[in-house]
Amino acid sequence: MDMHTVVVGTSGTTAEEVVAVAREGARVELSAAAVEALAAARETVEALAAKPEPVYGVSTGFGALASRHISPGLRAQLQRNIVRSHAAGMGPRVEREVVRALMFMRLKTVASGHTGVRPEVAQTMADVLNAGITPVVHEYGSLGCSGDLAPLSHCALTLMGEGDAEGPDGLVRPAAELLAAHGITPVELVEKEGLALLNGTDGMLGMLVLALADLKNLYTSADITAALSLEALLGTEKVLAPELHAIRPHPGQGASADNMLRVLAGSGLTGHHQDDLPRVQDAYSVRCAPQVNGAGRDTLTHGRLVADRELAAAVDNPVVLPGGRVESNGNFHGAPVAYVLDFLAIVAADLGSICERRTDRLLDKNRSHGLPPFLADDAGVDSGLMIAQYTQAALVSELKRLAVPASVDSIPSSAMQEDHVSMGWSAARKLRTAVGNLARIVAVELYAATRAVELRAAAGMTPAPASLAAVEALRAAGAQGPGPDRFLSPDLAAADAFVSRGGLVTAVEAVTGPLA
Q1: What are phi and psi of 176, to 5 degrees?
Q2: Distance separating alpha carbons of residues 442 and 21, to the nearest angstrom
Q3: Cross-link 5-imidazolinone (Ala-Gly): which residues (predicted)?
Q4: Cβ contacts of residue 188 below 8 Å, gap of 6+?
């Protein structure tokens, strides 16, 4: 496998492969083992379909209608109809990377050989991904139980040549037109296949994997901004000593403290807390940054564990088991993924909150230890970063609302057959918003902290080399205005892009080496 191709086998996939397909447009290929497993499982389904006894999903209706036996002449129509009827989503379009992630992971489950889907259907799924065709999927329609039904149904419509999809040029057109333009023949679904294409946790899992990738960058970025704020506030780095964190051995805490200590190496600003305005200790938002950031890091570790397990899973109902058994099950329930999505929204809110507290401290002349009010060039004539902090505070408030768990809710559906649902898709959607807001919050702290570090340097003090690298990289990213008044109109959108795309981490690691 080269860096541009992901080979899908029978044993699941990795988070890195999901990101490569969803964001980087990596090509997808089915392994020979997957094709063999698909064919073997299909033989099992066809043998069961030929028997007079009803088998759920093969020769029966679905959900509350599972008690009806479907005659052979109506089974292909049944599979088409379940896709058409379940493609009932509403609201704004879901992002392209999310749709690609859920399509790829549905292909991953199909390729496991536990769903009974024919090899040619799996190949069509790969062909659609490789052609850059993205089904139009809507925001609302999944309860996170029996899978992300509506979102996956809209994807299955595209495979059938129905509904709308976005082409590689970004234009939305009828799916049949796009398939024809790329030489892809629409699939004609037969027994079990319609159900198998829409009965999984792929949407919520895709968003979890993408959020984990983004949060890894943001937690490292937040360690850097916390170190810059500590430095600009003339705090002490002694609280970052490894022996202090060894006696409370949470791995994330130790990693965050080490990151901060490495960023501060060579600083002439730290340790001045006993100078003109003596402080026995720094404020909690400064002193306890490793504890808060580290607890979030440990939550990410748990999230990756759950994601890795789900990425190795084959989620469908019913499933084809070794020996030719086909069994109904409840593995489609999204609770394991939904809980983690909610956990991550909570830690994102808390990380955003502590970032904002440090920003406010940098801007308050009564607590900033000699910095000008609001870091203004001429306080009173201009307001400095006053309103940047307002924006940050509004984002933090929104994060707190987004931290309210979705997974504690449940609305029964399907005539009480599906009477307890996970709401995992909803948890994933709000986490995506939370992650975007967190990047903006970190960017505001970075802007304030680098401004404060520059002011300290102008006063004759010596910032850490890594801090100066962050200052220069942020300026090069275009976040500051031109000329002597460059801080008067901060480009916070440019700062956000710099942070969210990993620019801050890259700039600092050029000095410190790889950070956790």
Answers
A1: -60, -40
A2: 27
A3: 145-147
A4: 76, 160
